[in-house]
């Protein structure tokens, strides 16, 4: 069975965004991109909530083609364009393509089916509402959390009101104060 892996930036107090959805507090660095890119390459499938997908799809398909594209833009754009993407949505236009599939209805059953298919890891960037649902259902196998050195006090939480036991696999401190934490579900 394939692992479902969540990549998420969070504040020290566990929020993924401000109350209004703003994420301008997130710190990113070339070191972090290298760290995350090594792991992203193990995934051949991505899972997104509709809002996160719309944000990602507005940028990544052509990010690597721009004259000022960074190494990260080129690498992640290449990965994004070759990766099969599943979008969980009840409201998005249901226009499947060869690389984008929309799913709705019984999300738990569909994600379980996806995990049973052959392939590499399934990676999920962002999508905190979907992440909370999948955590409650016990479907997330790994967490890659980038804890930013800020306390927001309020916002969109990552974790549901559900106990989840985790085992720390690896931690990495970045020069900008962000701590990368890799946890496996016990």
The portion of residues forming beta strands comes to 25-35%
Give the H and E element order: EEHEHHEEHEHEEEE
The CATH C-level name is Alpha Beta
Cα-atom Rg, whole angstroms?
16 Å
Mean pLDDT: 93
How much helix is in the residues?
25-40%
Major beta-sheet overview: 8 strands, mixed
At CATH level 3, the topology is Dihydrofolate Reductase, subunit A
Give the total of beta strands.
Answer: 10
CATH-scheme architecture: 3-Layer(aba) Sandwich
The domain tally reads 1
What coarse outline follows from CA principal-axis ratios? Answer: globular
Q: Total number of helical segments?
A: 5
User: End-to-end span in angstroms?
Assistant: 16 Å
Low-pLDDT segments, ≥5 res: none
Given the helix and strand composition, which structural class is it?
A: alpha/beta
Side by side, the strands of the main sheet go 5-4-3-6-1-7-10-9
CATH superfamily: Dihydrofolate Reductase, subunit A
Protein model, in words:
It comes from Mucilaginibacter rubeus. One of its GO terms (molecular function) is 5-amino-6-(5-phosphoribosylamino)uracil reductase activity. Pfam families: RibD_C (PF01872). Residues 4-178 form the Bacterial bifunctional deaminase-reductase C-terminal domain. This is Dihydrofolate reductase. Strand 9 and strand 10 form a beta hairpin. This protein has a single domain (4-180), classed as Dihydrofolate Reductase, subunit A. The two termini are 16 Å apart. Helix 1 (30-40) runs parallel beside helix 3 and helix 2 packs across helix 3. 30% of the residues lie in helices and 30% in strands. It has 186 residues and is of the alpha/beta class. It contains 5 helices and 10 strands, in the order ββαβααββαβαββββ. An 8-stranded mixed sheet has the order 5-4-3-6-1-7-10-9, sandwiched between helices. A two-stranded antiparallel sheet has the order 2-8.
């Amino acid at each position: 069975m394939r692992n479902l892996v969540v990549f998420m930036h969070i504040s020290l107090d566990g929020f993924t965004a401000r109350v209004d959805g703003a994420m301008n507090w997130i710190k990113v660095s070339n070191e972090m991109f290298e760290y995350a890119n090594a792991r992203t390459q193990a995934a051949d499938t991505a899972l997104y909530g509709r809002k996160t997908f719309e944000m990602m799809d507005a940028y990544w398909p052509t990010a690597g083609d721009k004259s000022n594209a960074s190494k990260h833009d080129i690498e992640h754009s290449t990965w994004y364009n070759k990766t099969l993407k599943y979008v969980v949505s009840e409201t998005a236009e249901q226009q499947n393509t060869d690389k984008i599939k929309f799913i709705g209805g019984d999300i738990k059953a569909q994600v379980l089916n996806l995990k049973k298919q052959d392939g590499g890891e399934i990676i999920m960037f962002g999508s905190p509402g979907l992440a909370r649902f999948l955590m409650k259902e016990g479907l997330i196998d790994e967490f890659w959390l980038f804890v930013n050195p800020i306390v927001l006090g309020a916002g969109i939480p990552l974790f549901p009101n559900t106990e989840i036991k985790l085992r720390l696999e690896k931690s990495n401190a970045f020069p900008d104060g962000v701590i990368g934490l890799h946890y496996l579900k016990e």
